[in-house]
Amino acid sequence: MTSKTRIVLSSDHAAIDLRQAIAAHIQARGFEVVDIGPVTTESTHYPMHGRAAAEHVAAGKSDLGIIICGTGQGIMMAANKVAGIRCGVCCDTFSARMIRQHNNANMLALGARVVGGGLALDIVDAFLDAAFEGGRHATRVAMIEPV
Ligand code: RB5
Hints:
Ribose 5-phosphate Isomerase B, Chain: A, binds D-ribose, 6 helices, alpha/beta, 5-stranded parallel β-sheet
């Protein structure tokens, strides 16, 4: 992805600090960040934040999205309910690279209670630095449809 790439960020209350660290990191790399909150650590509901970020990407307002909750799982499930979204939870850099290269993922989910801050930033970098390979993978991605 180029440095012009716009990335929407969102989380629930479990991941405010990590979301802010990711925002600072990718901004320092030159990416454009759209942080749609929430701002405080008051308890909130991960589905609405996952959906909001996913709708942002699906509408073309951002190129990619990064969403975070305690495990990454719930917010990923909510995001994947939005048509056109392909979001994977990653706890390692290999998976983060592969969901771009093979699955053309347009969103990355992270678990703030699963991965440490340093690994989370490496996972983000792996995701942003990878590119979809197309070819046979495009055929398969096209087969990912709501039933
Ligand atoms: C919040 O306590 C927690 O359930 C949430 O962050 C997430 O892990 C859900 O998948």
